[in-house]
Amino acid sequence: MKMRSLNSTRQFTNTLYLTVFTLLLFGISFRGQSFGATAKEIDASADAALDRFYQQVKNGKEIAQNAKGLLVLPNVKKGAFIIGGEYGQGALRIGGKTVDYYNIISGSVGFQIGGQAKDVILAFMTEAALNDFRAGKGWEAGVDGNVALITVGAGERVDFTRINEPIVGFVFDVKGLMADISLKGAKFTKLDMSK
Known about the structure:
It is a single chain. By secondary structure, the protein is of the alpha+beta class. The chain has one domain (31-190). The chain has helices spanning 2-29, 39-56, 60-66, 127-135; strands spanning 69-94, 97-124, 138-140, 148-150, 167-176, 187-190. Strands 1, 2, 3, 4, 5 and 6 form a six-stranded mixed β-sheet that branches. It starts with a helix and ends in a 5-residue tail after the last strand. 31% of the residues are buried.
């Protein structure tokens, strides 16, 4: 009986390691790929996400106008059953115009189950933060730069004059059963839309 339990534990552990390895390999192999979404589709989704942001945050338009750039990632999806994965695509806008496209990829292991979709906006409040983000092939939150997350309920006002952080993240319009709004460890990669 003990031998069967030990074998089951080993099999589960091996399956878990294989799954994590596969997810990591998948994330590395497809960095920078757009997974079929066109620039036009990403821009339309980003426009809709910005409209939701302006509706849910009273001074969202002021924040957008004062930011040096906005990375708008609409409908970022996360799913988990012990091992979690998150993916989304969005547009980097400077002066209201799209200049590049990016994806967000993250993975996690631990006690977690469920799924969610959310909109994410990163507001680059300084030129230096925006330039650092754009300079590399990939950028990881918490490693290459910190993101100050602001949780705002619908209709609340954010005093952007008191925001002293170079990068401010907004997570809003969350739908689903998971309560995770962290961006730590999330990797952002510029998409090559020519493929």
